[in-house]
Amino acid sequence: MYWLCVTRQENWEVIKKRRIWGVSERQRKSINQTKPDDILVFYVIPKKITGIYRVVSYPYEEQKALFPEGGMYPYRVKIEPLIILKEPKDFTPLISLLSITRGKKNWNAILQRVMIKMDENDFRIIQEYLRKDP
Q1: pLDDT tens digits, 29-61
Q2: CATH number, domain at 11?
Q3: Neighbour count for residue 36 (Cβ, 10 Å)
């Protein structure tokens, strides 16, 4: 499966360093659908794509605070980098191309969720975009 994972910059720094993606109780159902080899594309608020990771563990629960501002996010998976950008890329050019946002007047409303399932075509579009020169 392919997922667009929405986070803030301060949490992105922890994700990169610790190679862990975590969510709260509210998103537990989504993360529990992940399994090893699933792909996570990271969207950092506001409108930046920062990298692509592969899930390398089954979901687990850990009550150790890792994230800033007391963000526990105890439902987690371990991840490994596939693509990490030195400089984030703007998400805006993708809006009209991705099925999860294309044609939606309030496309950013979907990004209120922390994990959004994507199809393989959306993933390939993002992957190609990230591989292009700036």
Answers
A1: 999 999 999 999 999 999 999 999 999 999 999
A2: 3.10.590.10
A3: 11
